[in-house]
Amino acid sequence: MSKLPYSTKDVHYDNDKFRHRSHFKVLSQSLTNSSTRISCSLGKFLMLLLISGVACLFLMNKSSPALETNSVQNANFTEFTEVAYQRPPRLWRRPPRLPPRLTPDEMHKKGSRLDDSKWVSRQQKVKEAFNHAWSGYKSFAMGFDELMPLSKRGTDGLGGLGATIIDALDTAMIMGENDIVKEASSWIEKNLVSRINERGQVNLFETTIRVLGGLLSAYHLSIGGNNSTNPEMLLEISKVLGDRLLLAFSSSSTPIPFSDVYLRDKVARTAPDGLSSTSEVSTLQLEFNYLSEISGDPKYYSQGMKVLEHMRSLPKVEGLVPIYISPQSGQFSGENIRLGSRGDSYYEYLIKIWIQQKNRRDTDLKYLYEMYTEAMRGVRHRLVRKSIPKGLVFVGELPYGSQGDFSPKMDHLVCFLPGTLALGATKGMTKKKAIESNLLSNDDIENLKLAEDLAKTCFEMYEVTSTGLAPEIAYFQIKGENENGPHGGNTSSEYLNDIVIKHLDRHNLLRPETVESLMYLHRITEDPKYREWGWQIFEAFEKYTKVESGGYTSLDDVTSVPPPKRDKMETFFLGETLKYLYLLFGENDVLPLDKYVFNTEAHPLPIIGLVDEI
Ligand code: DMJ
């Protein structure tokens, strides 16, 4: 294992440190602060001399008037970085405190228990997989959104902002893959602003969670750490992008933003049917809130949070909401209720935003916790059932609303829920500690139980197929319906008859949700089985999705061996799937859950308002 770029305990981020201050102000503040403390002792006199010397050195290092340049709108970023980010010499910045992390060899020697070294080498395998994924992308698709690993070319499925690079950057930082960090950072620095100025249509949600989220978490992780990434550059680009994305809000006559932004033309539009997805408009706030925190500009926070304040008063079914909402009327549209696509991260962000804002949990954001609690009661009451014959607990759908029939359909996307339920129950601490401290309410206990049951179901969705990889969508047997429905193909799975996999649902997009939940469940329950399950899933990815020439590919059918392939490596494979596997096999105090909140694309952001802020 190579070095982590920082220690989560040791990084102190101080916004002022990274906002522009004039050289004169920096110097005079340093002198003033020092001189107020100076008495007549010789030691302190020498200290003053030293500071004056340093100040002279500093002034001799020619400053550029362009340091005052703050606007990057319409600028070519290469030019911009040359002038605007000529930073003062390093000596004015707090030196990074980076406790050395152990290499695999050192870890093997140190680990007295066999089990330690097993997980160290498994974690190493995930890192190798990340390198393989990156090398394919770099060789054939650098600068494109995604790699098509079989045809060995790139494709721009997300608007052309180089999404894989940005999604992968913080994973590379966490893994200590410094060459990749350098390559990704330098691409971003040279290209991203001009891409934002030149490219066309992007989806507000995808761009926020993958690109803005990736930039912000890389910003945080690079503070005080890795010299190959300039946090100020990441912050400035985040503001440029954030300002464009705000157009989706300002163009709407209600608090519900439009779904698309035309970056180059600086306009926002609705989707062709005029509707926005419920999960999309409510899955922007962790990112926008953090951008306000580090930029000092509250506009991102206030626009994003208006969506949730507005949704608070809309009618719901026991806290559950339809998957569409109209930016024209501000009302939900249709009756389709599900925790899969277009519904999922609405529920995820209710609790995560509440967690992110530590100081507001008991005051103005208490309503988010209440909405989450009510919604999870609604899930347990309206959507949770058991399959037959073996009793797997699953979450189904209400496609025709509260009065319509229940559908036993569960998207793989729903597998984010076990992780979120566990996080919401213990607020990031271990189950043991939460129980000992008597912190779990009845709702928490029920949610934690449901989390463990659902994590098993999500794992069985992998186990039940011939490849050991889950389909995009599964149906569960209830009341003996679909008894002879198509199954996953693994005849040794005891759940073969409980899970039906329809022909059109057999693809696998390298999605992260199950391994994401395994990471949360492992950290919170400390049960080693979750790691073993994660390893099994990783091995199946290695066996069936790895492409020799570089990269990993989505599959068309997980029920047949060898599985037909799809020729696409989604950005979230590097941003989420491999990151969660790496964290699952690693130490629990890396990005601890009581100090960080992961956005829905697995980009860790610090919890705001902690006493010992990171
Ligand atoms: C990711 O972009 C995010 O996790 C999102 O919330 C759901 N879909 C993909 C991964 O499957």
From TrEMBL:
One GO CC term, this protein: membrane
Biased composition (Basic and acidic residues): 103-114
Top-rank taxon: Eukaryota
Disulphide-bridged cysteine pairs: 415-458
Catalytic residues in the record: 206, 344, 472, 513
Pathway(s) this gene product operates in, as recorded in its UniProt entry: Protein modification; protein glycosylation
Annotated catalysed reactions: N(4)-(alpha-D-Man-(1->2)-alpha-D-Man-(1->2)-alpha-D-Man-(1->3)-[alpha-D-Man-(1->2)-alpha-D-Man-(1->3)-[alpha-D-Man-(1->2)-alpha-D-Man-(1->6)]-alpha-D-Man-(1->6)]-beta-D-Man-(1->4)-beta-D-GlcNAc-(1->4)-beta-D-GlcNAc)-L-asparaginyl-[protein] (N-glucan mannose isomer 9A1,2,3B1,2,3) + 4 H2O = N(4)-(alpha-D-Man-(1->3)-[alpha-D-Man-(1->3)-[alpha-D-Man-(1->6)]-alpha-D-Man-(1->6)]-beta-D-Man-(1->4)-beta-D-GlcNAc-(1->4)-beta-D-GlcNAc)-L-asparaginyl-[protein] (N-glucan mannose isomer 5A1,2) + 4 beta-D-mannose; N(4)-(alpha-D-Man-(1->2)-alpha-D-Man-(1->2)-alpha-D-Man-(1->3)-[alpha-D-Man-(1->3)-[alpha-D-Man-(1->2)-alpha-D-Man-(1->6)]-alpha-D-Man-(1->6)]-beta-D-Man-(1->4)-beta-D-GlcNAc-(1->4)-beta-D-GlcNAc)-L-asparaginyl-[protein] (N-glucan mannose isomer 8A1,2,3B1,3) + 3 H2O = N(4)-(alpha-D-Man-(1->3)-[alpha-D-Man-(1->3)-[alpha-D-Man-(1->6)]-alpha-D-Man-(1->6)]-beta-D-Man-(1->4)-beta-D-GlcNAc-(1->4)-beta-D-GlcNAc)-L-asparaginyl-[protein] (N-glucan mannose isomer 5A1,2) + 3 beta-D-mannose
SUPFAM superfamilies cross-referenced by the UniProt entry: Seven-hairpin glycosidases (SSF48225)
Keywords: Calcium, Disulfide bond, Glycosidase, Hydrolase, Metal-binding
InterPro entries (alphabetical): 6hp_glycosidase-like_sf, Glyco_hydro_47, Glycosyl_Hydrolase_47, Seven-hairpin_glycosidases
GO molecular function term, any single one: mannosyl-oligosaccharide 1,2-alpha-mannosidase activity
UniProt region (Disordered), positions on chain: 91-114
EC number(s) on file: 3.2.1.-
Residues annotated to bind Ca(2+): 600
GO biological process: carbohydrate metabolic process
Record-stated family: Belongs to the glycosyl hydrolase 47 family.
Matching PANTHER family: ENDOPLASMIC RETICULUM MANNOSYL-OLIGOSACCHARIDE 1,2-ALPHA-MANNOSIDASE, MANNOSYL-OLIGOSACCHARIDE ALPHA-1,2-MANNOSIDASE-RELATED
Protein's recorded name: alpha-1,2-Mannosidase
